[in-house]
Amino acid sequence: MDDNEDGEEDRFLSNGLMKKRKYEEEEYHPGHASFGMSVFNLSNAIMGSGILGLSYAMANTGIVLFTILLIAVAILSLYSVHLLLMTAKEGGSLVYETLGQKAFGWPGKMAAFGSIIMQNIGAMSSYLFIVKYELPEVIRAFLRLEENSGEWYLNGNYLVVFVSIGIILPLSLLKNLGLLMIEQSLDDNVKAFYFYFSQLIYKKTQLPCPLPFFYAHSSNLSMNTSDMSGLYAIRHNTSLMDFSRADITPAVSSSQDAHHTTGVHFEPHPDDEEMCTPKYFVFNSQTAYTVPILAFAFVCHPEVLPIYSELKDRSRRKMQNVSNLSILAMLIMYMLSALFGYLTFYGNVEDELLHTFTKVYKFDTMLLLVRLAVLTAVTLTVPIVLFPIRSSITTLLFRGREFSWIRHLLIAMFILVFNNMLVIFVPTIRDIFGFIGASAATMLIFILPAAFYLRLVKSLPFTSWQKIGALVFLLVGIVFMIGSLSLIVLDWINHPPGSKAGH
């Protein structure tokens, strides 16, 4: 059977973007995408669920240290793109896996395949984690429940399974994903995260500090139900926010009017100023997750070459400029997203920022719309990410065989079952960001581009400053991978699932 009859063979990028074919020689394939469209496509490839973990990263590094690390990872990503483009020119291929094969034979190809598969599995798992976190909150808001009542339909683990079986699996069984469906889903994904970003900035202007739930573990505060109701009425009538009564504590108001109206007697909390003071340098057990989270958020390197192949009148300099603008745009967006999220919740921010708002807003309409938009986008993106994983598995294990619907179904089911198990049994989305960022993302950003460059670029002597720079880059990647994975594993040992690591 002709390879073109296989609905997935050689047709998808590692994040689900469609590519026409795997062109070996760039000069024989004229591109048709404009410069602006290429910037947009690469920005889409970069943006993803990693944006939801950036405020948590800032809370555990401080504003200054986070900014330094964010800029450093962005610059290193650009240098990695430079190495990749040079390697593609000298290696004569615009396919990441083929460069690995040309550089190191079968082991190089397997390293590229394995890293891309791991990165996609991490992306899928992070999307399913969002379903696990946010869908129960959407259902609770529609049912007007103040708190999660513990019913099965409010259990995130059950909901992930139902969404996977009822929506994701049927879409994943399509033999081909149409280009229109891919572009629409990815466009919706970007719109959803921009909507999230705009609401994040807006909510920061509406929320006071300290927020009520900051005092959840304080032993100095007490009040009865009537006190809470009275204070809730004051807050609600001033239209500051839609808090639930259970969230309100007297410490959020220091005005004499609130005291006389409700009869609440309290003393100012001694940590008020500390709770609402931004930290500039922070070091704790969670700091080890920061650079892996940033690497996870910036990885786009398997998409660089296919986007390059479609660039009209392409040249390495032009594609480098595409990368420069895309990464700069994401750098600014990531910085603002992390900053506004951190300055809203400070040390109380959770590893998935959107879920943190649950402690503040119960029935806020705009946040409900944000949740619906993000849930819809990530749910429809999961099948797009699943296709290249299945394509890679099919290529590795069943290359040359005729298309089989049974195999097509079984591989999709295996991938979904595996990802559902990860989402159910891995404690938090932070662990996915951290582990995948420290392993697969590090391979794709640091180790593989540098190794391919050193092996395939023959026009420069090994003693040239370019080759020495690539060697240093490779060593930095190896040290970072080993160090980050070690620190993350140590954190898992010292703070096992169920325990709460302090900030």
From TrEMBL:
The chain crosses the membrane at residues 39-57, 63-85, 106-130, 152-174, 322-345, 365-387, 408-426, 432-456, 468-490. GO terms for molecular function: L-amino acid transmembrane transporter activity. Residues 33-182, 281-486 form the Amino acid transporter transmembrane domain. Keywords: Membrane, Transmembrane, Transmembrane helix. It comes from the Eukaryota. Its main location: membrane. GO terms for cellular component: plasma membrane. The keyword Transmembrane applies. It is found in: Membrane. It is a multi-pass membrane protein. It holds the Pfam family Aa_trans. This is Solute carrier family 38 member 4. It comes from Cyprinodon variegatus (Sheepshead minnow).
